[in-house]
Amino acid sequence: MDYFNYKQGQLYAEDVSVKAIANTYGTPCYIYSRATLERHWHAFNDAFGDQDHLICYSVKACSNIAILNLFARLGSGFDIVSVGELERVLAAGGDPSKVVFSGVGKREDEMRRALEVGIRCFNIESEGELDRLNNVAREMGKAAAISIRVNPDVDAQTHPYISTGLKENKFGIDIDVVEDVYLRAEGMPNIKVDGIDCHIGSQLTEVAPFLDALDRVLDLADRLKEKGVEIHHLDLGGGLGVRYKDETPPLPAEYMQKMMENTRLKDYQVLIEPGRAIAANSAILVSRVEYLKPGEEKSFAIIDAAMNDLIRPSLYQAWQNIIPVVEVAEDAATSCYDVVGPICETGDFLGKDRDLSLKQGDLVAIRSSGAYGFTMASNYNTRPRACEVLVDGDQVHQIRRRETIEELFAGETLLP
Ligand code: LLP
Question: Which domains does the chain have, with CATH numbers?
Fold first, then answer.
């Protein structure tokens, strides 16, 4: 559920007209709803009941510091994958002792900064990384808390680009060989084994793969215990899907309920790293129709947003709803459009075969754009990145201004 609804024929973000925002801040423009973000965060947090837990919001989904700050105020933890994301969390007032650091390629300088500010845990993805972390921690006279990301070989049944828990994926360490790595880690003077980590993919719409992975992780924890390795927390990753079109993913409460039916979970603190399920439906991307281009084979609606603003349709053939900002009469004539951007690529589309009633200058909203929307935006075709606006009731806050063209080549220099 979100807070983007029509009122008297106009699309509203909470209590503010989307058209008014577009007129003030220009297009393309990301509009977030604070109530939606907070509602989704609480849905996860409440789902745990009295189970010891920590929500580590996955920063990569949507990383504007105003939004991270909202979660920090709720007491959230954060899942990061780079020192850049760490600095964002700190700038947003996030508590470093609630930060977990994921990712297969952590550099030494990133480890150093994370140890300096005292993050909660490194999610280790390879033996090489473990050795490097032990060395960096030794140089700093510290002990680094770790969990090892295991690859449970579970098929998440999602798009191949966002499936991560199969043996063929680059992530984690094979669950069948990870015990020896844990035993090695246990013997390292500057490493403190704390947990087991697992993330099998994104946009999962069934609980079954999560339950499979959980079973395997709990079995591993048991086996480790027998060998004298104490596990205190289980990090179950993110991955819960959302409805873009007609998907029926479980609600956070249903998902956690099913997971907690496994009573072995009680022995551990549970961390989760949701990104999409919190952020996706918290934002729309608003864009204006530049041209309508009717054709024999295809008709195109050319809008001022493009794949550089929102790459999900181009990259994953993702379907996101495109709706008019000013509601049209139910019996209004429609045409079937490919909704495309101005970028010089055939793959530059936001939606294909959409029945819409449009005219030049109209505003459209691309729904469910809050996760992996702005964070995946680029400057391709030297296009400044869009502005981001957050609505809170009847208040509008610009949380990131539109980039200027000068900024785009400010770091470039001519040869002498
Ligand atoms: N934890 C780890 C270790 C991850 O790799 C990810 C996402 C998450 C948590 C958060 O997963 P979520 O709850 O958002 O599913 N750009 C793609 C999605 C890539 C997901 C990458 N990892 C998309 O737009 O669909």
Answer: 4-32+280-408 (2.40.37.10), 34-278 (3.20.20.10)
